[in-house]
Design brief:
With about 290 residues, the protein is of the alpha/beta class. The chain is about 45% helix and about 20% strand. Helix 4 packs across helix 5 and helix 5 runs parallel beside helix 9. The termini are far apart.
């Protein structure tokens, strides 16, 4: 083997190793900074909804007679990302609170392969949960990829969703393109070295731009009787702080109102670092809906 061949193979190995290390580092960053309770609060109950051959697992708490709040997690994630909200006695008094395991996560297994992180199937699965409570009005709270999917849910359930709270979500299709390490993780060499959760998370990110383009086209043609509040960190390293401006401009005729809150020094993990603001925003959206 020539020196050139050794160098070439050496560079290829270094490149793959660098891609793997970068991917793992970024997935570790994506790992949401919350801790699940060692013992579940007795006020939280668990259920399943059905969509064709799929089972959708979700947790709930609060007063079933009150307006609904439905949390949608990012990637990776699960219902427990919002456990603290479900345990809040304040929220339990005033809302019926639901947190889902999106299809492919937690106890919501995939009965068939999801292609490109399909928003359509994810949204219909979440709507199946909402359909368990057919007369209820909902505020959808999405974080990260969950915030990207939430407007699609509203398109499927326009009579049930009256407000959306989007936290650090990719909304602009041009800003939702995969990064180089996502492409690297899609190759056989890297994919074979990472776990199933990382593979599936990467698949969702790889399909994000396509799904955002499809949803954006639908939203521009729709008129939803819902208020939209977007909160974004100006120091977010995972989702561009430019996303809210896109929604506020392109979707202004889609929603009743659109409000953007930019937190200049905040990063990506708003549900945990800005929990009081999230709670305050839920009450603000509900008050707006209850005005005569």
């Amino acid at each position: 083997m020539s020196k050139f061949q050794i160098s070439r193979h050496g560079f290829a190995f270094v490149g793959l190793a660098t891609a793997l290390i970068t991917l793992i580092a970024n997935v570790n960053v994506l790992a949401q900074p919350y801790e699940r309770s060692a013992e579940l609060d007795s006020s939280i109950s668990f259920h399943f909804a059905a969509l064709a051959q799929h089972k959708i697992h979700y947790a709930s708490s609060g007063n079933v007679e009150k307006p609904g709040v439905l949390f949608i997690h990012g990637t990776p994630g699960g219902w427990g990302a919002f456990e603290n909200y479900l345990e809040s006695t304040q929220l339990q008094r005033d809302f019926f609170i639901v947190s889902v395991d999106r299809l492919g996560w937690g106890e919501s297994p995939l009965a068939s392969k999801l292609i490109d992180g399909d928003f359509d199937l994810q949204a219909r699965a979440i709507k199946a949960v909402m359909d368990q409570y057919p007369t209820k009005k909902w505020t959808l709270v999405g974080h990260s990829l969950g915030a990207s999917i939430a407007p699609k849910v509203a398109l499927y359930a326009p009579d049930s969703v009256d407000s959306l709270l989007l936290l650090a979500g990719s909304l602009d299709p041009k800003l939702g393109k995969p990064r180089w390490y996502n492409w690297a993780a899609s190759t056989w060499a890297i994919s074979s070295l990472i776990g199933n959760a990382m593979k599936y998370s990467n698949r969702e990110i790889m399909g994000l731009r396509k799904q955002l383009k499809l949803m954006d086209a639908e939203l521009r043609l729709a008129t939803l009787n819902a208020d939209l509040l977007i909160i974004q960190g100006g120091n977010d390293k995972l989702v561009s702080p430019k996303n809210p401006n896109y929604a506020a401009t392109k979707w202004q005729s889609t929603f009743n109102t659109i409000e953007v809150m930019q937190l200049s020094d905040e990063g990506h993990f708003l549900p945990w670092r800005q929990a009081p603001l999230v709670v305050q925003s839920l009450y603000k959206l509900r008050a707006a809906q209850e005005q005569p």
